[in-house]
């Protein structure tokens, strides 16, 4: 069992590392994680004041320099220190949101898919209602009820992420529950709980892992969006979306570094999670056809090349025909 | 192979974006230098020449970009500045306040006298007609004032009116519920606008608010909710007929977008631009910055019902730890004037110049130690999202108070929850503003610091003393201005010593105005008058 698992992981890794974009994504993500881990070293606490909130009122809105590599903000705080501490917030939002989404989505999807009929209908119609409301609107409404803070944001975005996981898992469970090995387990007298947790769910994990990786990106984006419109994070916590929002008022005045750096970080982390997710999709199940952006692009390029080749062949054939005629 | 191409494409796009971003300062920098020369060329009219040339008649249409439109077009129904501004243009009032001297001058009134402390007799003009052609009589005035006196939203301004009655077509008597000396200033407020009695009674309040008829310099044409309000000039106006043919208020909530519309020439005036954009507007040849100090005051309430803040030594320590001039410089980019100790703005009647408080951390620490909190304590400050300027104030307060050992947590609330919580007294510190719309100390002090105003009416420090209460009541009843000055000076000293609030600054409004607009003078109470404006 153990060796087989390792064999599978190694196989996935072998296929994953063939995708340069996924590798690029992993490199970016590793940098982000390192930044989050060492934020306290980069910008240490001084006299009980966190490193991201050290204000220097005589040194405001400085452009990037050797002293402050990303410049200083409108209250004289070092932008890089804030970015570094902000990576903790973004990664925490991503991980916790996906955890909430998977935990509840797994339970709902598995129960609905396994039992079918009325239970399936009740759960899935409830999920349909959730899905009918745009997830960001749902998150805004939940934050409105729960109040401001990181935890309300995580809960809000987490709840709005549940339906996607529930649907993914339900679809997988429905496929697997009719398979022979499940029949066999049932014949041996295994309980429903055991069948679901030991036999069906481990087989459903591939699309869930892909979904989770993409889900990280959308959770971070949703968290940044909520902070940008002033819901969520309490100042002075340096959430990237909030930093972007704070920097916005200085855009006309030309202080580009207050918006470009947090905006770039949001773009990079989302890019990295999406690329990793794309790579994982291909690596985990080569049969799964990706509908992702990159895949479609590749398909088009392949089509174009095939067309080119056919045209070349045709031209060659015509040329060949012409010479033979001559 | 193909994947490599895409990687290359992606990374080159990223590089391009970064390169473009890095270019921005060099692109914005050059226009800043030649701008001053262009600006002087674009202004042929000498600064002193503000009298319009009647033959030129500088008409045309003026487009003003506003942060919000009137909530109600029926003047007493809403006490927000956009509604007040609408009323100022479309309606007339008995009196009008001069923007510079804050002296009250008659508008509809001709003669007036207080026959006793609670009775005011007024004679009005005989040449005033509503926009629908009917004559404005004392019956309309009496009806309007009695009605406004009973509407809750107008209570702070006109609640003291018991009722008004017309003695003949052009004379009326206003009866007050109590002796109230600043009544003339209150009758100059747009909430006291005169509405046509017959029309309001036949249409009903709600229908009238949709299709209002006044007697002001501008005639209401159309209100597209959330988008714009349009006026044409009143050709039969009893005062100087405006030179503008049409006037349009367009709702543009984002301040930077308002400015961009003016600099790109699609609008003429952008009201209330954000402090960060003032240098941008100044540098642009297509916009001038017209700013002025207002009757507004920005301050921090300290709720005296909360632990620690109930101790005057702690409140004094907090106000000594805050560098309000640094806050003014960083948050408001230097806009606004210095103001200390009490909420009466300089320029208002009864203003007493309190001694400036200079930040002194050692003295603040000593006061805290004296109060028994040498090791500090934890408290909180509220700000209302999305007012980012207040967020910056909160962050600076948090940072400053950390220096004397006070740990402040920042709490963000929506405007509705903000006021509700503050009315209940749930807050510890909160950042807010107040505009003394009548220009009289009574309007700054009575609603904010009298014991009858705790909570919703305005006193969110929940602080007063019997001595201060008595002074504020005397100030209302006293008719001799010199005596009132003394009363209010004493009241302001009491407030400055007890420090239930920390004054951050006197307000200032900055507007971006196209160089072709002439004669625009912002109002210190934010109900700007467009009647004297003309276009080059």
Task: Characterise the protein shown here.
The complex is a heterodimer of chains A (326) and B (536). By secondary structure, chain A is mainly alpha-helical. Helix content of chain A is 75%, strand content 0%. The model of chain A is unreliable at 289-293 and 321-326 (pLDDT under 50). Chain B has 18 helices and 18 strands. In chain B, the strands form four sheets. Chain B has a ten-stranded mixed β-sheet, with helices on both faces. The model of chain B is unreliable at 21-56 (pLDDT under 50). Classes of the chains: A mainly alpha (326), B alpha+beta (536). The interface between A and B is large, with 39 and 44 residues.
Care to give the gist of this entry?
Chain A is mostly helical. Chain A contains twelve helices and no strands. In chain A, α2 crosses α4 (79-115) and α4 runs antiparallel to α9 (192-228).
Write down the overall geometry of chain A: globular
The biggest sheet of chain A, with number of strands, parallel, antiparallel or mixed sense and barrel status, is:
none
**Judging from the principal axes of the Cα atoms, what is the shape of chain B?**
globular
Overall radius of gyration of chain B: 26 Å
Radius of gyration of chain A: 25 Å
Helix content of chain B: 25-40%
How many helical stretches of chain B? 18
Which labels suit this protein?
heterodimer; A: 326 residues; mainly alpha; globular; B: 536 residues; alpha+beta; ten-stranded mixed β-sheet; four-stranded antiparallel β-sheet; 18 helices
Summarize the topology.
The complex is a heterodimer of chains A (326) and B (536).
Chain A: H1 2-16, H2 20-37, H3 39-42, H4 79-115, H5 117-132, H6 135-146, H7 150-176, H8 180-187, H9 192-228, H10 240-248, H11 257-284, H12 293-325
Chain B: H1 2-32, H2 35-41, E1 61-66, H3 81-90, E2 95-97, E3 104-106, E4 109-116, E5 119-124, H4 138-150, H5 155-158, E6 161-168, E7 171-176, H6 183-187, H7 197-203, H8 205-210, E8 218-224, E9 228-233, E10 246-251, H9 255-263, E11 269-270, H10 278-283, E12 288-302, H11 312-321, H12 324-331, H13 361-371, E13 378-385, H14 388-402, E14 407-414, H15 415-424, E15 429-435, H16 441-449, H17 466-477, H18 481-498, E16 501-513, E17 517-518, E18 534-535
Parallel strand pairs in B: 1-10, 1-11, 13-14, 13-15
Antiparallel strand pairs in B: 2-3, 4-5, 5-7, 6-7, 8-9, 9-10, 11-16, 12-15, 12-16, 17-18
Helix pairs in contact in B: 11-13, 16-17, 17-18
